[in-house]
What does this fold into?
Amino acid sequence: MTRAWISLLAIVAIAVALVGAPVAQPKEVVVGVLYPMSGNAAQVGIDCVNAVKLAADIVNANHDLNMPLAKGEGLPGLGGAKIRVVVVDHQGKPDLGQAEAERLLTQEKVHALFGAYFSGVTQTIAQVAERNGVPHLNAESSSPALTERGLKWFFRTSPHDGHFSQAMFDFMRDLEKRRSVKIKSVAIMHEATQFGSDSAKVQEELARKAGYEVATKITYRDKATNLDAEVGKLKAANADVLLPSSYTNDAILFVRTAKNLDYNPKLLIAQNAGWTDPTFLKEMGKDAEGHITRAPFALDMAAKKPMISQVNELFKKTGGRDISDAPARAFTGFITLADAINRAQSTDPEAIRKALVATNIPADQLIMPWTGVKFDEKGQNSGVRAILQQAQNGKYVTIYPFELAAADAVYPLPAWKDRK
Amino acid sequence: MTLELVLQGVVGGLLMGLVYALIAAGLSLIFGLMEIVNFAHGEFLMLAMFASFWAWALWRLDPLVSLPLTALLLGVLGWATYHGVVRFILDAPMLAQIFATFGLAVFLRSGAQALWGADFHLVKDPLVQGRVTVAGVFIGLPQLVASAGALVAFGLLYWFITRTETGLALQATAQDRQAASLMGIDTQWMFALGWAIGGACVGVAGGLLATFFYVFPDVGASFALLAYVAVALGGFGNVPATLAGGVVVGLVEVLGGLLFDPSLKLIGVFALYLLVVLWRPQGLFGRF
Amino acid sequence: MSRTRLAVGLVLLAAAVLFPALVTLPYPRDVLIRIFLFATLAQAWNILAGYCGQISLGHAIFFGTGAYAAGMFVAKDIASPWVAMVVGAVIAVALSQVIGAPVFRLRGHYFAIATIAVGEIVHILAVNWELIGAARGLYIPIKRPDSLVNFQFHQSKAVYYYIVLGLLLLGLGVTRLIERSRLGYYFRAVREEQDAAASLGVAVARTKRMAFAISAALTAMCGTFYAQYVLFIDPESVLPLSLSILICLVAVLGGVGTLWGPLIGAAVLIPLGEATRIYVGGTGKALDLVIYGALIMVVSVAQPAGLVGIARRLRRAA
It folds into this structure.
């Protein structure tokens, strides 16, 4: 009798031990990261990759920061598994983006896709993700169309052109009220690729809705050798506000040409890109004084959120420069993805997707000036907030929304001869 | 559109056109000598600009001051390109020649990025800055100096080709390679020299551009395209004619954009090229 | 064709046909699809430039025509992409005739630069043309389930693979036909000595236009395929000068004016680009492109007749 009981107990004990034993956790989580690392936007791509690597390091190692997964090592939901990134250069080509995304999924066996800055390339990668049922998180592409296509696996943390441009027009309207000035016309100038065209299209629609006259709309080919004709046309149109969408090189050329030809609108509100490239303000100095740009990210908010300086210091160590708009967004997007994977407690794509849908990161855990990260039914982060910054005394300061502003907006732009 | 703005456009186009012309001059010279289009010409320009930039970044030499150095450096590069690459494809089909210089272009462009990164660089506080106003027209001083420099360089080139023995030997080689060689002219030497001078021309252009234009690995591409059109407009092989070609390109670019639509301004340039060559298949002044 | 050649050809064909059955990973299939696509593009270009001697550096406009035809037809729900392929080819042929009439009067480098000029004009027009999406490009709506009618396959690349293989075989077939026909003789006569050919009664202008038409049609069909494969097109990806040059390079590397040159060129260049990008790229240092450029230079200097030339030399030496 005793032997039977002992045997039964033994069998039960073994069964419990087998069933109750911890499921083998994956040793690591792999994320495919795609950015342009050659060509025109290479510097931005490099910065974003550095930001992503920093985010991965914050997750993997112990950092004393008030942000998801910073404390402790690895992903606690997966038994401390670490995140590994596989970085790929898509050279700005949509078909390469597609090919690389597929390669990352099938050969590098990544669990999620991340990237890719250029809206056109992000689009093809999103399609690959959709076809294969794998999450794709995008942190910086600004074409509104990306979240309008009904994709189930695509998530975007960043605001898009619609948000930014809306902020610009809200600012203009509020400025009119506050300073009792009247803005009658706008001029739109944009470079002829996806970014510029999307931006210009949205701005034109919003301008008409707001009742401003669109004095002129100029498309120019990027990497221009000469912008004399464009600036001449702008002078002729003489609009109150100029809304440019340009990459860094053209922004620099434009400002210099405007200086030469004495063109100065009352307000210049830029659609980011060139204007928020750290090189731009450094090189332009007082020539860019008073220029306003939309910015998803503001370094001067560090006064209210010290975590921003901490992250910036860490970024400077590997990146060699201050963290700027695009890499800050990349950083935030990656932390969001890591957080979701952690909550999914598995690398199963559907589990990660559900976790992404349930994301809810509060404002104080972000380095961005947003109200949080929470995705709507289209995969777009609804907690975004666009802010406007103005170059004052060689540095960008937040001027809008007024309740977040660090300084008053300067209006109108100082004339060229008055810039000392 | 006021007269003032149009006049401004004319001046702007003229100044820019002179720089385009200088870039095109080297291209035309090389082609005239051996019927090879240097598809790496834009990258030569880029390297010249980088050379100027680094001279400023490291030793505080203004691009105008380091101009002779830049010209020399690019001259050496031209020479080296001839001996290292072009010499072997002199008699190859046109395609292989295109291929070789195109490969060189990709090599130089990516090499520049590998060495100096993809970021933009700008010479700050150049010797010449600011602008002057002449009869209501603004003229940026750096642009003015650059165009003047281009004109001077052009003049020197013209003098060299037509007034010196070596220059005449170059012309002879361009006209008839075999006859020149029979006359005792060392054609290999002439070819190398042609490449060296072509390089030096673009070196001067690059140095001048560096005083007001930003520098980065891809900068050569856009200029090169306009240079090809300028050369063809003037007539391949006719170096003085590229002055006219360059100026025309500059004027059409600015005025076309100003008077019509800036988005389509380059169409004006290319359409003009097509019209000219169809009317005169050898270019405005070409020998063909 | 000799027995051995025939045998080798059949073995290659069998291997090509069997490949998707043996290799099911999408990435290698994608590489082969791109090899076949570029081989066909280079073959099409080869007909005009290699056999007929007209060096066009603006061929991307035909690729773009085919791509946008597909894009417009599908995005605006006008007809099936296959219809678009035919329409695209027809438009491309018409375009080639319109361009060819004036431009073929030019010679040598003037002609080459004229083709660049035409290419750039088309590019700029496309960037500014709202109807086709201007610079924003066209998204081709995803249609499920996979279907031949819709020319979209999401589960596997196999059918894409076979379609592009078919295009390649078409290109090879057309080239072979031309090689052996009287038209082929006219092509070569025009290439070698245009004036002498004219004096012997060859209708030079018409011959050139014929070559242009065939070349344009085939290129456009490749464009339609690309649009259905990537499902997103914009002027930067289907009309740029760099694409025209790349098509050129593939043919030149392999061997211009030969039947197999373009395929060999593609089979070398595409994997090379992939290898350098995967193993050396991604650091932001563009080292992969440095190697790429150096290799192109070395090959063109060492053997201007392309890889086919090298093969011939080896065979002769053996």
User: Anything to note?
Assistant: The beta strands of chain C are 138-139, 232-233. The domain at 3-317 of chain C is CATH 1.10.3470 (ABC transporter involved in vitamin B12 uptake, BtuC).
